[in-house]
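sry for the spam today, last one i promise. struct tokens for design, 274 residues
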């Protein structure tokens, strides 16, 4: 992403952006927003805790060569999977099709030397399931690397298409517990203009944490990943909700920049608003 000169005005000059992501992604995204001129705070409202490897889970990795398809649902899931594979496989077994739910997840696999597939557009489970190699899976085995909870759409859909799906749970998500001082600083002192919440679970946890704040977060611009989460946000009372165009840092920042550019141009809604 281009870093504007210090004397160049940008649409995000003095815009206050609150990033609600787990670390280290939160700090990295905050840095990208600062490069576009914004002021930032990070408030991770979800923590990811790796699940200790059990003998059963270890065997699933040892048996990696028995699967025809391996799917990672997020960049974090991909990193955790690669760490475990590296323990048992000096080289990746051949004959496996690898997938990332979105481009960012696929990039993690690609950086490890794989050639993963991912949707050309979109970064949702629905977009992944539209890929041609995942349509007819009779008698084929799929390893699904993910957290211990979450949407069951991928697993259930692939089973309906004939696949034998094995879930490899690599981490659990849990609500973070920021201190009262951190909440006061992030909400009441900082008073964010923009809030970034990139999952429905993140949004729910943020709402719960902000309920007792004197700052009305419902009037902030809220960026969420999908229309499904956008509906959830509007039902909760948020009035300015936009969907990300991609999950890479640059995509997220550019989506907010486009929104502010549209507002400065006098448009009622930013381009692509849900």
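last one done:
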């Amino acid at each position: 992403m281009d870093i504007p000169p210090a004397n160049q005005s940008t649409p995000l000059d003095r815009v206050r952006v609150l990033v609600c992501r787990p670390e280290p992604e939160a700090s990295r995204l905050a840095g990208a927003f600062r490069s576009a001129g914004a002021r930032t705070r990070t408030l991770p409202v979800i923590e990811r805790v790796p699940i200790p490897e059990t003998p059963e889970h270890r065997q699933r990795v040892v048996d990696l060569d028995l699967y025809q398809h391996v799917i990672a649902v997020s960049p974090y899931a991909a990193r955790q999977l690669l760490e475990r594979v590296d323990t048992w496989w000096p080289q990746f077994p051949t004959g496996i099709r690898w997938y990332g739910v979105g481009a960012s997840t696929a990039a993690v696999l690609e950086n490890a030397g794989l050639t993963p597939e991912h949707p050309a557009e979109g970064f949702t489970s629905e977009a992944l399931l539209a890929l041609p190699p995942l349509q007819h899976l009779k008698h084929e085995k799929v390893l699904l690397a993910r957290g211990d909870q979450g949407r069951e759409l991928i697993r259930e859909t692939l089973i309906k298409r004939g696949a034998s799906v094995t879930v490899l749970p690599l981490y659990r998500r849990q609500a973070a517990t920021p201190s009262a001082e951190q909440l006061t600083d992030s909400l009441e002192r900082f008073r964010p203009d923009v809030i970034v919440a990139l999952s429905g679970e993140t949004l729910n946890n943020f709402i719960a944490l902000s309920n007792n704040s004197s700052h009305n977060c419902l009037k902030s611009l809220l960026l969420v990943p999908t229309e499904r989460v956008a509906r959830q946000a509007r039902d909760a009372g948020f009035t300015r909700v936009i969907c990300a165009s991609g999950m890479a840092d640059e995509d997220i920042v550019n989506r907010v920049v486009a929104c502010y550019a549209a507002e400065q141009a006098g448009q009622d809604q930013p381009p692509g608003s849900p």
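The domain at 16-45+176-264 is CATH 3.40.50.10090 (Rossmann fold). ok im logging off now
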